[in-house]
Design brief:
Helices cover about 35% and strands about 25% of the residues. By secondary structure, it is an alpha+beta fold. It has a six-stranded mixed β-sheet. It has a four-stranded mixed β-sheet with strand order 3-6-4-5, with helices on one face. The chain has a two-stranded antiparallel sheet with strand order 1-2. Strand 1 and strand 2 form a beta hairpin. The longest helix is centred in the middle third of the chain and has 18 residues.
Length: about 350
């Protein structure tokens, strides 16, 4: 061997791990995810987590004219609170809830769910907590965690932070598709309680805390801010699918960003409007606390948050009492929050908030 060549200092080897991507950590996470996904497995699954694609067989015997319903959503800046508090076990529930509650408004049963988790440096333990929450949300909503993507993108996110997105697919018989076309003046608007802010408006929540210099660990008026603000979004799937078997549901709205006034009109036909009585339900104390801390005007609260009603259904006036009793027997707080009224067809449907 050439001694001179052997003694030359070799340049350092550059590896993918040195560049910031740890393939071994990713493989470890996949192995931890597999048993979590298995808990959510439906009989229609042919292949799930671990392959290049998830396979789901839609039974031709069960459906006569199936309509697939899809949705995509994220958690928004609620993630910032999870980072600050270093709590990651429920944020995945929020992700599933935001998606399945959306497709539920068409009357769809969720079938499967896909997630996207991206971070600059993969923390396997933290990511496992997040996915465990996703699996829990899938179990609650009856859908399969069919697959997803874990992306390690060095330098793209701040240390300790990650992005989260999800995609849900459901199915409904064409004849049972709920599209709001049958809504008529005189129908009742039933509001179902939220579990808090759900996953909307957290930029305003965080601004209120910052302006008032209120730490997340503080208890204000008997409300523990950290627990109340990280309370996961309620999943309405089982209760609403059961309700549809008892009464004719004419329209449904998932109350997200924009509040009741911004979401309910999306499912109303022209020639109608909704009159909502603001005093007809109980607003959780956490909303009052945030409003006071941030000195937020009432109009701003109503146009940003769900204000305690996370899901709204429209039924005939004759079915309102039956629907309310059914939901209450299932342990949900629900109220007749208003009614559908006639409006000019030349005007887009809207919500009128009454004191």
């Amino acid at each position: 061997m050439n001694t001179e060549l052997a003694n030359c200092k070799q340049p350092p080897v550059t590896t993918y791990k040195e560049a910031g991507v740890d393939i071994a950590a990713g493989d470890t996470l996949v192995e931890r995810i597999k048993p979590l996904a298995m808990r959510t497995r439906r009989s229609e699954v042919l292949a799930g987590v671990g392959g290049f694609a998830g396979l789901f067989s839609l039974s031709c015997k069960r459906y006569r004219s199936p309509v697939l319903v899809s949705g995509a959503d994220g958690v928004g800046t609620k993630l910032k609170l999870a980072f600050e508090l270093d709590r990651h076990d429920t944020i995945g529930i929020d992700l599933v809830a935001m998606n399945v509650n959306d497709i539920l408004t068409c009357g769809a049963e969720p079938l499967f769910f896909l997630d996207y988790f991206a971070t600059s440096k993969l923390d396997v333990a933290r990511a496992t907590q997040v996915v465990a929450g996703i699996a829990s949300g899938c179990e609650t909503s009856g859908c399969t965690l069919l697959g997803g993507e874990t992306a390690e993108v060095p330098g793209f996110y701040a240390p300790g932070e990650y992005e989260l997105a999800g995609f849900a697919v459901g199915v409904v018989e064409r004849a049972r598709l709920i599209d709001g076309k049958s809504v008529r003046p005189g129908d009742a608007v039933i509001g179902i309680a939220s579990s808090g802010f759900h996953s909307n408006g957290y930029s305003l929540v965080r601004r209120a805390l910052t302006k008032s210099r209120t730490p997340l660990h503080k208890i204000v008026d008997g409300v523990a801010l950290d627990s109340a603000l990280l309370e996961p979004t309620r999943i309405y799937v089982a209760d609403i699918l059961a309700l549809q078997k008892k009464v004719e549901v004419k329209a449904m709205a998932h109350i997200t960003g924009g509040g009741i006034a911004g979401n309910l009109p999306r499912v109303l036909p022209k020639g109608t409007a909704a009159e909502i009585s603001l005093g007809s339900w109980q607003v959780p104390r956490i909303f009052e606390v945030i409003q006071r801390l941030g000195k937020i005007p009432s109009d701003e609260m109503l146009s940003t948050f769900n204000m305690g009603l996370g899901f709204v259904v429209v039924v005939s006036h004759a079915m309102a009492t039956k629907a309310l009793k059914f939901l209450q027997r299932r342990g949900l707080d629900a109220w007749e929050a208003g009614a559908i009224v006639r409006a000019p067809k030349s005007v887009e449907p809207q919500v009128v908030l009454r004191p």
